[in-house]
Specification:
2 helices, Cathepsin D, subunit A, domain 1, globular, 8% helix, mainly beta
Length: 154
């Protein structure tokens, strides 16, 4: 799989921008908010023809490069995958404009006059978004309370 060939990229905060993914997904269940169990079990098939069960769906908060916390909505929890994938189609459906050039990728919020909210690097033939998991906001959700006016990627 091409993703494993990227060198020098810390995987802690990296989300791979996936042109072929049908959904955003991660194995990190601790990051999810407002999860829902699937009524009908589902599976994700990866490029090596293996299937991975989808256990839940929910939203994941991310600290963006513009200083805001945004939510990736409709993220699949797939406990057996090793990479975090963000789906271009879902970003576009959520009102975001994603552009690519030889230097990287750029995510703009079209609902906010095209404000740049995230940028990513080009690593070979892959693009990555390097975002952070919000620490303070994660603590606020442990007791079921939101963090006020946090934007939602939806």
């Amino acid at each position: 799989m091409a993703i494993s060939m990227i060198r020098g990229v810390s995987d802690n905060n990296v989300w791979y921008v996936d042109f072929g993914a049908s959904n955003q997904m991660t194995s990190h269940v601790e990051w999810f908010r407002d999860t829902k169990d699937l009524k009908t079990p589902g599976f994700v098939e990866t490029g090596d023809d293996t299937t991975h069960p989808i256990t839940q769906i929910g939203k994941v908060p991310l600290s963006m490069q513009d200083g805001q916390t945004k939510y990736l909505k409709d993220v699949l929890h797939v406990s057996t995958i090793t990479k975090k994938l963000v789906c271009i189609c879902q970003m576009v459906e959520q009102g975001l404009h994603v552009t690519f050039n030889p230097n990287g990728c750029f995510v703009e919020n079209m609902k906010n006059q095209g404000k740049l909210i995230a940028k990513g690097e080009r690593n070979g033939r892959m693009f990555t978004l390097d975002v952070n998991m919000p620490k303070v906001n994660s603590m606020l959700f442990t007791h079921g309370k939101g963090a006020g006016d946090i934007g939602i990627w939806h």
